[in-house]
From TrEMBL:
Protein localization: Golgi apparatus membrane
Any GO MF annotation of the entry: sulfotransferase activity
Protein name: Carbohydrate sulfotransferase
InterPro entries, A to Z: Carb_sulfotrans_8-10 (IPR018011), Sulfotransferase (IPR005331)
Organism, scientific name: Petrolisthes cinctipes
Top-level lineage group: Eukaryota
GO biological process: carbohydrate biosynthetic process
Amino acid sequence: MCGVRTWLPFLYSLNTTVNTTTVNTPGHNIPVNTTVNITDNTTTVNTTDNTTTVHNTTINTITLNTTDNTTTVHTIIERASFLHQQCSNLGLSKGTYNKPPSGFFVIKGILGVCRTGKGASFSWTKLEWLLEESEINENIKSLKPRAVISVRHPLRRLVSAYRDKYLGGLPIDIYNDTYREKKDLLESWYKRWYNYWLPALISSGRVSSEHLYATYNNNSSSFEDMQELIITAYGGSEKILLKTFQKATFSFEQFIHHVLWTHELKLPDFHWLPIFNTCHPCFYHYDYVIHLETVQEDVRDLLSLTHIQLNSDEYPFPALHVTKEGTSSDSFYFANIPSHVMQRIFQIYALDFKLFGYSKNA
């Protein structure tokens, strides 16, 4: 494969970034044509509309090791301060939203949380359920809700999305009632089929993309998500496609190409949409930044700061088992991804790396 090299992104430094990025993602509730000026000695980011603006602004990066407590930015408050400073440095703090982002929800009038795909969103939902059943001090309830953003290393989010939505490479026919019950999953087989599996069969070339592009080019502005587009283009061929591909599998490299393909169509899934596009961290003020890599410690600090008490047996956030090289099985997924493909991934998630203090070694 042309351009293939051994990639161990968890051993990379944050200094492989971009000259500029123009963020323009219609349909995802962020300000369009936002120009980000980031300069170093490596690459230039071209965005979905292929525009580039060059400036001479150098940003000094901070490396954050999220695997232990020896961090440059080591508390949920300091991370928020770091976020605000990075937004200012990048020229992204000129406008603010009065209205919270679409992924934002308020728990018991105390916490306002922006959930992200593969960022412990279900655990936050469980916390909401627990607090709805709890008595909260009226003095605390009278305060303005504190805004929280829950984030995760971009590469780890991708691995998690692959393991979940594409079953880690297993045949899709194992996604039956027994599998869903064991994994505590709620999505139906058909929702997975139209949201994830059939689109990936198209992006990998196993199913012709002719119907998709004909439908998309005629009505691109009317589609809010991938499922709607796929059902419109391929719903009439459902039976034969299901019969042909009921045991389909997806490699991690195919998944990565699919992620890039969905961004090209401007229909990326919520589970791999950049956090910058989901939670608007430079346009909506956040008081605390939670890292999934240290979620147990972070959420305990958050509950302490907001004077919320939970019994230990009710705690909804499982520990993420992390080593200094990343999770024990994360890094090998990227070992054979071509360098030019990884550069495109780094471009898409450039702001998530910068704003949340993540380095390319996880």
